[in-house]
Amino acid sequence: MATGYRPEWVQGAFVDFIESRLHPFWSLSIPKIRLLARHRLSDDLIALQFETNRAFRQRAFSTQKGWHGGQYLNVSVVLAGICHQRSYSLVGLPHQPLWWIDDSSNAKTGKNLPSHTVTVAIKPQGLVSDYLTKRMPIGTAIHSSIPTGSFTLAQAALAQKYLTKEPEHNQLTPLLFIASGSGITPMLGLITEALRSGHQVTLLHYNRTILLQSQWQTLAATYPDFTYHLIDTEDSNTHLAGTRHLTADSLLTLNLSWAETQIFACGSQALLTSLYNAADQIPLPDDKSLRDNIVVESFGTSFVNATDEQTLDEASTQTVYLRARQRQFSSDTTLLTAAEKAGIRLTHGCRQGICQLCRCQKISGVVKNIQTGKLSHDGHEFIQTCINVAVTDVVLDV
Which of 191, 335, 344, 371 is most solvent-facing, going by the fewest CB within 10 Å? Predict the structure, then answer.
């Protein structure tokens, strides 16, 4: 009886194996990137420019038309026989020149860089980052994912509403970007994309030193609707509302229309907690909450407002069903941790909500994001098990 199955005469994995032996950059289906150049953006931020292989370009441009500001790459590096995977923010947009690369920089190297390139921004502070920024030879090829991540204008649920112009006002929603430290890296491409789309953009960057000032000056000179505030936490002359911290008063000095403003935030848990506390103090009409206007990318996992009794109550014991495995377990903490306590191994990576390796589909039930405090809807959606707790019984497609 015919089943419709057609066996492959030559399997793709075999072709990939043979090609990798002929040349480490060749691959039929595996995305790879090859280091072309390093650019120092500041004392503690370095941009790495990579050439992409054919498999990378086919997958990135055929399925999602390149990438968007705010997305990242997962890269894999083998050190001392151990494969390490890390995520790094993409800088710039497809087919768009980067602000620090021009004809003069090409002239210094004596050659033009390939047009099919991606650039990531890295703060050298760990084993893999140190290797990539200091010791990996130019020309080295490594495995990578295609660009991914939902910290974008197009994919953020609340921003999606305003991607097209409103008939009545014929203008896009204002955007506020708030970052601390190296949380500025995913915003480099995101802000550029927002300005080119016609948004009014305001930037707040909290750091112990001023980063990328020339970049922001260039954008401000090009786009009149761009305003930026670089907060040096050690310099009181740069503080808003007389404080080095993010508060409701410092936000109110920006004179934004808060009911319409979409907020993108990336940084430490301290910054995000301050942002949500400040949002609770800024009232909106029609009993709306400014929290609902916030989209975050963060670097850790802890409960926002962890002392809030409601947060702790909502993390009471619930039952989680894994549909594909026909297993279930009780959960009073994150879904990933609860599964591990029950002896069930789930795919994961960073455990901090960054790498997306733990992402899976929720079939039903309500979960709460411990970084943002937001509740999901009761239905199909993709969630990350490392940063979500069950508020009701939950069914996962795992």
Answer: 344
Selection from 99, 130, 120, 123 nearest residue 35 by Cα: 120
Q: What are the Cα distances from residue 252, in Å, to 217, 240, 247, 256, 345? A: 23, 9, 9, 7, 46
Measured distance CA(65)–CA(57) in Å, rounded = 10
> What count of residues does the chain have?
398
pLDDT digits (tens, 9 = 90+) for 204-230: 999 887 778 888 998 899 999 999 999
Per-residue DSSP letters for 68-122? Answer: -TT-EEEEEEEETTEEEEEEEEE-S-TT---TT--HHHHHHHTSPPPSSEEEEEE
- Say what the pTM is: 0.68
* DSSP line for 120-138: EEE---SHHHHIIIIISPT
The pLDDT assigned to 105 comes to 46
Tens digit of each residue's pLDDT (9 = 90 or more) over 306-352: 333 333 333 468 899 998 888 999 988 889 989 999 999 998 877 77
The DSSP H or E segment spanning 314 is helix 309-314
Distance between CA atoms of 226 and 157, rounded to whole angstroms? Answer: 23
d(CA 1, CA 99): 61
The contacts of residue 373 (CB under 8 Å, 6+ apart) are: 276, 291, 304, 305, 311
Number of Cβ within 10 Å of residue 68's Cβ equals 21
List all residues 6 or more positions away from 155 whose beta carbon is below 8 Å from its beta carbon.
68
Element (H, E) at 243: none
- Which has the closest alpha carbon to 328: 339, 340, 320, 336? 320
Measured CA angle at 154 (ends 151, 160), to 5 deg: 110
Mean pLDDT, the chain, integer: 80
Q: Give the CA count within 13 Å in the CB-facing half-sphere of 80.
A: 3
Strands 175-180 and 45-52: unpaired
CA distance 54 to 60: 10
